[in-house]
Write a structure and sequence with these properties.
The chain has 732 residues and is mainly β. Helix content is 1%, strand content 53%. Strands 2, 3, 6, 7, 8, 9, 10, 11, 12, 13, 14 and 15 form a 12-stranded mixed beta sheet that branches. A 5-stranded mixed beta sheet has the order 17-24-23-19-21, with no helix packed on it. The protein has a 5-stranded mixed beta sheet with strand order 29-31-27-25-33, with no helix packed on it. The longest helix is centred in the last third of the chain and has 5 residues, at 522-526. It is elongated and about 125 Å long. Residues 1-19 form the signal peptide.
Length: 732
């Protein structure tokens, strides 16, 4: 037999499992000769054959001239001296005892095949007591080897007493994960003869194994011989592993290898089985490109299947070029807002001569995401840019979603769609700078303009659901409002009028004006004051002046009565201007003063006027803070979120993976245990003591804790013509 490619299903390895079943005929009690195989196979139906000797080590076949298997199953095999031998230990390491340093060997199987090289199976001997298959091992010299051979990560054990010539051994695994043990079999061991058929399988042999080069509109033909190993027959289907690459014919019928006799005799039995004749299956396979084919440079597999199971695989190199376009997403992320359509910027670069119209769309988009396909016309050697409108439906989960963009003749690309909360566009004349909560909705500064006489006019709008519900216009006031628990807001006069006016207005826009006492400087009311539940204004003002150096203290002013009380005139307060000087608990009872550089934060109980300096670690400036209605303080310094415990200790909480904390916003008005904050990737909410939940959003310009719970935040941008854009989003 000429050498041919052998299927992995037929090679199996040294460890052969041939137990099970009761072989026949009856055991031979006499000593056997390892150089011969003789006896009779029961139920033999494959006719008269000439056996072949297969060397496992050289992977070559050799006809066994003078040996035979008769049509009745009579076996007469004599094993010749191998043409080549190999070192058993070779360059591996050995541990144990041995009579020689190494021995030249070969391992062989007696294989039965048709005249057309269809491999049917093996003739072998098995121990009669347990059915363990015997393997033929040829030794060039006598050798005794007992020990272990290690070859890198593999190895095997040996208990061999070899005689020059052919020997019988077993290859058995000692246990799960154990080494294979090669053990000599005494020649007096009772053995039985049996035929071990190979697994039915198709093996391919191509006359031309060069790469399959496919181009659009072209075909490639290859002559192939199909071997019916294990006696496989009947209908098989052929296909390839590459989408869009077809093979014709797609179906073949393999003839039966069983040689049928002249017909039934009178007793109903079959006539004598004859020698298996030439039944080669040779055909021409045609490869072509069909719908869905894509460029590829690698392995092309031809798959044979029967009854839904793969029964053979051939491998060829392939060079496939399909006119296509490479799709690329321009940018790492696309922001998609719930309920909106966003434009995904793409570029298409033709390859292998693609030209003309192509359609671009989403491939298997995630739930809630859709896109109307866009058609563009491509020109060879020219990159075409386009925008694909991607719609995010209401109820779509927030966060990063992977979307694939592609289409016919397009090499797909994957983009990240960052789904962000729904937003409502609000009409503004200029970009607003912040939000202030109202009893219902939020207040924004929708316009801030200069008027005659170096005056300014601020326009405040109360928005509910993004629509204006009230409007207030005031001259010479700060654009920043001071919220009052309950819903009203304050507006402070600016330097233009000497800071002597102070205004309060409600949701309906009704304004009440107060005179600011001379003891309160305009700076004090413009540097981040805060109002408590009684409408009193807490601020940091000048407590005394010592040789040109001002000392600052904590004061509270009641606008309705004009009363000013020095709460803590001797404390370590800072006169630095900041709109982050104070934060307030939801009810307004507790205030948290943050101070300036290296200042200690101060907890203030507005009902008792008690002040408590809080411990901090690490020094530096506390960037922002929040306080609960129970007086629990949270601080943000150097990006670390810290809770100040009642015993004076502190506990630090890490930011979510991939994000960093930017600012504490305060505790929810209806969920006392929920703290809101901003991160480098948007908003976050944390149930105190728990793990923060990151909500991917645009960076907010301002935010407001809603009276009904949740948070409303403001984001801004600009249109292509420079028109300012502003959006409101609400998180529950």
């Amino acid at each position: 037999m000429k050498k041919r490619a052998i299927s992995p299903l037929l090679l199996g390895g040294l460890l052969v499992a041939c137990g099970g079943g009761t072989p026949t005929p009856a055991p031979n009690p006499n000593a056997f000769d390892p150089a011969t195989l003789s006896g009779k196979l029961s139920d033999w139906k494959d006719g008269a054959l000439t056996p072949q000797l297969y060397s496992r080590l050289s992977e070559e076949y050799r006809p066994l001239g003078g040996s035979s298997v008769g049509s009745d199953g009579t076996v007469n095999v004599t094993l010749p001296v191998p043409e080549r031998t190999f070192g058993l230990i070779d360059s591996c390491s050995f541990s144990g005892t041995r009579s020689v340093s190494d021995v030249q060997i070969d391992l062989a199987d007696v294989v039965l095949a048709t005249d057309q090289d269809d491999l049917l199976g093996e003739v072998l001997q098995a121990r009669s007591n347990d059915g363990q298959a015997l393997t033929r091992l040829y030794a060039a010299t006598d050798a005794i080897l007992k020990g272990t051979v290690s070859c890198g990560v593999s190895g095997f054990g040996m208990d061999l007493n070899l005689k020059a010539g052919w020997n019988a051994i077993t290859a058995e695994q000692t246990g799960p994960g154990g080494l294979v043990q090669l053990v000599s079999v005494e020649r007096t061991t009772p053995v039985t003869l049996k035929f071990s058929p190979y697994t039915p399988e198709v093996a391919f042999s191509f006359a031309d194994n060069s790469p399959v080069v496919l181009r659009a509109g072209q075909t490639v033909k290859r002559e192939v011989r199909l071997y019916q190993d294990g006696g496989i027959s009947g209908e098989i289907t052929l296909s390839t592993n590459l989408p869009g690459v077809t093979v014709t014919p797609g179906t073949l019928t393999l003839p039966s290898l069983r040689a049928q006799g002249a017909g039934a005799n009178r007793a109903g039995g079959l006539g004598a089985l004859e020698h298996l004749g030439a039944q080669a299956v040779t055909t021409t396979l045609t490869f072509a490109l069909g719908s869905g084919a894509a460029s590829a440079n690698g392995e092309l597999q031809v798959l044979a299947r029967q009854n839904g199971q793969t029964v053979g695989t051939a491998r060829l190199s392939a060079d496939i070029r399909v006119p296509s376009a490479q799709v690329r997403a321009n940018g790492d992320f696309l922001s998609g807002y719930v309920g909106e359509s966003s434009a995904l910027a793409l570029s298409l670069t033709p390859q292998d001569g693609l030209s003309g119209p192509v359609t671009v769309g989403l491939v298997d988009p995630p739930a809630g995401v859709s896109a109307a396909p866009v058609q563009v016309t491509l020109t060879p050697n020219t990159t075409t840019n386009l925008e694909l409108p991607v719609q995010v439906a209401a109820g779509t989960a927030l966060g990063d979603l992977k979307v694939q963009v592609g289409g016919a003749s397009l090499s797909p690309a994957t983009a990240t769609l960052r789904v962000k909360p729904a937003r409502t566009r609000i009409e503004v004349q200029q970009a607003p700078s912040g939000l202030t909560p109202a009893a219902q909705g939020v207040w924004i500064t929708s316009a801030y303009t200069y008027t005659a006489g170096a005056k300014t006019q601020a326009t405040f709008q109360r928005l509910v659901g993004g629509k204006a519900a009230a409007e207030v216009k005031l001259e010479n006031v700060s654009g920043g409002l001071i919220s009052i628990p309950g819903g009203d807001v304050y507006a402070a006069g600016t330097w233009n009028d000497g800071g002597k006016k102070f205004y309060r207005f409600d949701d309906a826009g009704k304004v009440t004006t107060y005179d600011v006492p001379a003891a309160i400087s305009p700076q004090a009311l413009l540097s981040g004051p805060v109002a408590d539940a009684q409408g009193r204004v807490w601020y940091v003002g000048i407590a005394k002046e010592e040789v040109g150096v001002f000392r600052y203290g904590l004061f509270v002013w009641t606008p309705a009565t004009g009363q000013i009380v020095a709460v803590d005139p001797e404390g370590a307060y800072s006169g630095a201007s900041s709109n982050l000087v104070f934060s307030r608990s939801a009810s307004g009872r507790y205030l948290l003063y943050l101070g300036g550089y290296n200042s200690k934060p101060v907890l203030i109980d507005t009902e008792t006027a008690k002040t408590t300096v809080l411990p901090t670690t690490g020094g530096g400036t506390v960037e922002s803070g929040a306080v609960s209605d129970t007086g629990e303080a949270w601080l943000l310094a150097y990006g670390a979120l810290t809770r100040v415990n009642t015993d004076g200790t502190s506990t630090t909480f890490p930011a979510p993976s991939g994000a960093s904390y930017l600012r504490l916003l305060g505790f929810d008005r209806q969920q006392p245990g929920v703290l809101w904050l901003t991160t480098s990737q948007g908003m976050a909410r944390v149930a105190t003591g728990g793990t923060p939940t990151l909500i991917l959003t645009d960076q907010p310009i301002g935010s407001a804790l809603n009276a009904g719970g949740g948070l409303t935040f403001l984001t801004t941008g600009s249109a292509a013509n420079g028109t300012p854009l502003a959006y409101l989003s609400t998180l529950p």
